[in-house]
Amino acid sequence: MSTDALVALDVGGTSIRGELLRPARDAGEVVDLEVLERVLADTPRGGAEPDGDAILDEIERVCKALLDSATSHRVSVGAVGVAVPGVVDTAAGAVHLAGNLGWRDVPVAAELSARLGVPVRVHHDVACAGLAERTLGAGRGVRDLLAVFIGTGIAATLTVAGMPVTGGHHAGELGHVPVREPGLPCPCGQTGCLEVYASARAIGRAYAAATGRDDVTSRDVVAALGTDPAADAVWDDALDALAHALLGAITLLGTERIVLGGGLSLAGDALVAPLRERLLARARVAVVPDIVTAGLGPRAGVVGAALATLG
Amino acid sequence: MSTDALVALDVGGTSIRGELLRPARDAGEVVDLEVLERVLADTPRGGAEPDGDAILDEIERVCKALLDSATSHRVSVGAVGVAVPGVVDTAAGAVHLAGNLGWRDVPVAAELSARLGVPVRVHHDVACAGLAERTLGAGRGVRDLLAVFIGTGIAATLTVAGMPVTGGHHAGELGHVPVREPGLPCPCGQTGCLEVYASARAIGRAYAAATGRDDVTSRDVVAALGTDPAADAVWDDALDALAHALLGAITLLGTERIVLGGGLSLAGDALVAPLRERLLARARVAVVPDIVTAGLGPRAGVVGAALATLG
User: Do B286 and A188 touch (CB under 8 A)?
Assistant: First the structure.
């Protein structure tokens, strides 16, 4: 009976993804994570605001279902790893702020491990996704990597000379890199942030404003490319903004590969090809790196939560 | 007789600075470089274009003067380190391109070591200056450091988690990070590069254009601040551009300290104070790091050439 299995969760504002995983190692390094069980659940909502307590209960339920299934797979679970969007203190096992989950200063690790009887570790979701892409995904083996996750917001994880960049202060906030002067206001309080132009949410809103429809999202923009000039214009604006921020990043960092993840990366070549074109047309000092979509797709957070917990 | 002394040179487009240095070590690490001799020479010019052969001869002359002086200091010189502005292949000891020196594919290390009878190593000048500030200057002990050198051009060296960032491709080209869309053309072929707005050369040119005088430099702008509104406007533009690029950099990197070096940093608080103000006024996601001027001043290149050669 293996004692090396673990439960990993990616807790988002709309869904909770959980997996029971068995790591395969080579010379001590994790080279694969076999999926033994999966659970996908809706994140509970308490009316207009997220209900933090209900979300914690649902996480407990998902974990218990996965822990219960371990016996039939003849594994025992040594730890639970949870990826969370927000300000996370991994060492303390606490989440200082997770707006989408209704949490402020919640000792998530202590609370869950008391309920589950298994050690629990809490990690930042984007850091997990970046770790996963670097270790087992589209950034595998790349020493100088920029993994960019574009969804409701935009964040990045940087790998420099094979080492993750954590920064003396919080790093990787690509969504709040300025791309326009002075630019549109961002909820963060700045103006001209990349996120205001190129997040999935911003793209959906810009298309809604252009078409007068309030039920459209970034997926509708991608679907209408080439047929609706309004969609083309919104997409072009987003790509121009993304090119500004990424040209700056690769010029500073000498990046070898850009991995694009998050919901918007499901656009695939509709995103990658025009972004590559823009960078090739503009860059004269930086060498334009490979640009690829994420290898682990929506599983990156779960895989990274497992890797961070094992590491 | 110490055999640990070395000769270090910083070869620029206008001057050549050479020093005979004796390292002091603590537990194997270089903790100080004692200056035994100094030479400052003009970089030879052959009319309008730089004369590469004459520059190499002058480097030889400066090195020989420093090597000859070693005997009187009772040291022997184990190596010569040369810092050069351009595209340098340190492993091969060759300079692929150094426009300001008139060099293209010159095997500088082999040529000089044949003339001098001492091993010679060649390094990139900004990498040297960054190494020097990180090791013995204003960035000493800082794990996440951005050292920015503003002179004719703008370049940076990045230190992340205590390690220098070299990039899979060439890194640190802060001067070619875009700050305006589409912005003014840059000699590199891009538009809107930081260097077009905030280098010492760009500031001098903008002031010349504003005043109709062709004999002014960035030093005149600094001297006229507070008395000439044209100087204030030029300086404000440069600082706005610098704030855009640096806000992007610190938001990505989580930088703990920014060290400002190069000729423009001689402006001191006239540069540091308004830059800090702009970053504090703008930043809502990144924590604004310490901003200080370089500790080694114009010696950073020489000190770094020595450190790079010893390391």
Answer: no
Distance CA A25, CA B278 (A): 49
In this structure, what token pair is assigned to residue B304?
Answer: 């770094």
Does A311 fall in a domain?
no
B135, part of any domain: no
Is B77 exposed, middle or buried (CB count within 10 Å of its CB: 0-12, 13-18, 19+)?
buried
Residues of the domain holding B198: 141-295
Query: Is the ipTM value over 0.85, yes or no?
Result: yes
- Where is average pLDDT lowest: A199-213, B20-34, B154-168, B222-236? B154-168
Task: Establish if B134 belongs to a structural domain.
Answer: no
Place of tokens 């970089």: B43
Put simply, the answer to whether B285 touches A181 (Cβ < 8 Å) is no
Q: Which residue of A has its CA nearest to B167?
A: A254
| Domain containing residue A211: CATH number | 3.30.420.40
pLDDT, tens digit, 9 for 90 and up, residues A250-265: 999 999 999 999 989 9
Distance from CA of A181 to the nearest CA of B (A): 7
A residues 135-194 lying closer than 8 A (beta carbon) to B: 142-144, 156, 158, 160-161, 163, 165-174, 176-181, 186, 188-190
- Residues B213, B173 share a domain: yes
Q: Could you give the number of structural domains in chain B? A: 2
Residues B27 and B172 reside in one and the same domain: no
Residue B296 distance to chain A (closest CA, Å): 23
Inter-chain residue contact A176 with B285, CB threshold 8 Å: yes
Between the CA of residue A16 and those of A61, B40, B154, what are the distances in Å? 11, 66, 46
Three-state secondary-structure class, residue B279: helix
